[in-house]
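Quick one:
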Amino acid sequence: MARNNIRRQDRAVNDDAWIADFLQRAPVISVAFSDGEQPLVKPTLFVYDARRHAVYFHATQFGRTTDVLPKHPQAALTAFEMGRLLPAPRAMNFSLEYASVVAYGQIAIVEDEDEAIYALQLLLDKYFPHLKTGDDYIPIQPEELKVTAVFRLDISEWAGKKKEVAEDFPGAFSYPTPPK
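Output:
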C-alpha cells in the first residue's frame, strides 16, 4: 500500500492545489522522524515553498534534530485543522470536522547560505507579514546561521483528508465551548 493511500476515500482530498493551499495557511506542523529505533516528533513553525515543492523549518545548530536528521533523513509531517465537534445518539458515532495533510520525503540541512537566508525570510514573511526587513528589524545576518540550522523536507508524496458536514448539523459546536 502506498504511504499516501487514504483508507476512507470519502474523505480523501486528491486535489494538489487544495493540499498546497492548506500547507500555505496551516500555522504549525509536526515532523516525524527517527533515531534508529527511537521515534521523534518535532512540532514547529514552517513554510511551504511551492516553487521547490518543499517545506522549510529551523532549529538550533546544537540540538537533537540537527544531530539525528543527517543520519536518518526519511521523515513525514502533518498539519491539522480542527472544526466543530459532532455529537451523536451513540458514543461510537461521535465525530468532528477536520482537515489535514500528511507529507513524506527526505530532509536535508540547508548548507547553502543564500538558500538558508531565503528560507528564513520566507518564515518571517509568513508569520510577520506586517513587518518589513530593514525597516522593522535587522535583516538576517550570515553569522546568525552559525547557530541556526535550516531544514528542507523535499516532498515526494502527500495526501489530504477532510470531513465537513452540513452547517445545521444538530448539536455541532466548536471546542471547548459546548452548547448550553
